[in-house]
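Possible regression after last week's pipeline update?

I re-ran a chain I had predicted before the update to compare outputs. Posting the input and the new output here so someone can diff against the archived version. Not blocking, just want to make sure nothing changed silently.
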Amino acid sequence: MKALFLIAARGGSKGVPRKNLRKISGLSLVGYKAISARKSRYCSRLIISSDDTEIQAEARSHGTEVPFTRPAELATDTAQSSAVITHAMEWIEREGRERYDAVMLLEPSSPFARSADYDAALDMLAARNANAVVGVRRVEAGTDVIGIMDADGRLTSVVDKLHAVRRKTGHRQLREPEYTMNGALYAFRWEYFKRHGWIYQDRLGVFGYVMDRFHSIEIDELPDLAWAEFLVANGYIQLGEWGLSV
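New output (post-update):
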């Protein structure tokens, strides 16, 4: 399977300014993604989509191609990732006259995915005849204890769910484990995305690749960086994949 690995990294970030260039144990978030991507046996080509020259230079220093600069309208807070993917794929087809079997979309804000994770996800894409495989983690709190509060602060929506679960199982802990996307990897077939322009179009053909909660960490706010440094310093995350030691 020929796979295009695509790092998506814009320059702007409200939660963590210059987030994609922030470092954990001396390596930038972009660097984490680039190094692990290049080690995947499925990585036929590694490129970055970015509007920022400093991010482009950082990616290039880790062996990533910078074939184009992302248009400004695709680098705003409201720009959709699907539009970013479409732009990259269309550029590759038009300028490079190439197509791939699959795309592996990588976001630097989830830095700790390993090459083995990418390989396993793409193995799953092939073995399950899936249209997409996305990285997921198990959630600590299930949807039976998540809901909205009304204007007066009532938790009626949550209480109703708890009543329904209790009637069904007799015990809340018997619920099935639930998962959410962790942002670490998104693998999908080239032609499938070209047809639909959305990863989740096929409700029966999208599979989850489960990762542990430490390698699923996402950097959305400044405390997340401190948490990541703590996990590394205390051995919960090993950095051999990236040629680093603590």
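Follow-up from reviewer: compared with the archived run. The chain has a mean pLDDT of 94. Marking as no regression found.
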